[in-house]
What does this fold into?
Amino acid sequence: MLINLLSGESRILKIQVQIPVQICYFYPVPAPEKKTPVRKKAPARKKPVVKAKQQASFSTQWIVAIGALLLILLSPFYYGYILKFGSATWRWIMDAGEDTHYRKYKDFNIHIPDGYTVYGIDVSSYQGRINWKQVKAMREGDVHISFAFIKATEGVLSVDPYFQRNWREAPKAGIMCGAYHFFLPQKSGVWQAKFFLQTVKTEKGDLPMVVDVERLYRTSPEKMREQLESFIKTIETRTGIKPIIYTNLKFYQDYLEGYFDGYTLWIAHYYQPKLLVSNKTNWKFWQHSDKAHVNGINHVVDFNVFKGDSTEFEKLLVP
It folds into this structure.
């Protein structure tokens, strides 16, 4: 602001006065907040000692339960009864609708008759090169291979090309073996026996020698039996052990029954739950399938059971 004061004509006094001006700003005042009264926390309650004791008791119960379970799992009772019962129950479920005495074994891909404990196979060059360790290691349930009959010779000139290898390698794997000769009725029984003995040397623990007779080859039944008897007597005289006779059920019933009753029989009769022969028949081996799948063998193979337990089987071996 300027104020002019006139004092006379000759002098003009100008006074400049500055008055500070203060600018004020006004802001809206918020409404007062309502204060919520603070609640005092109640003093923490101590847990009753009873719960602690209950927890300790609960832990002890768990320890006792686990200990009891371990004792059961590690006890013979578990393996002798509980596990066996569980396995049998599962097997019963899997075999629902099948003949309980003639069940399918998936790994072997065949039905195996019930009531036997000693199992085996028979092989020739037809099966090719065999891994006998895999054969021995194969198992499904209680079924595993304990013995093998191995083709050695045929007629008076033919030696199976895989005989020597099979005869050497199978026993190394822990399989008990026997050798068999494929009999030709039109050839001399004596010469066939000599040829067989020249090729095969049996030892203690082997199965007795076997003669495989299953066809007449245009020979009369009488001539066949004559040559077969010559073969058997020659083997028995040279080794002191009666050979086993292998044949199929029909051939036995038609041409052999009643003629060689003093000899152990090995009979082929396929895809049946039972071997349909008289109780008087002196059979010990039954070839019940020719389509088994066995680890270590790249072709189907004949499967056999032994009539008797392991003790009876050992009695049959070469002393």
Remarks:
- Residues 234 and 293 are 36 Å apart (CA to CA).
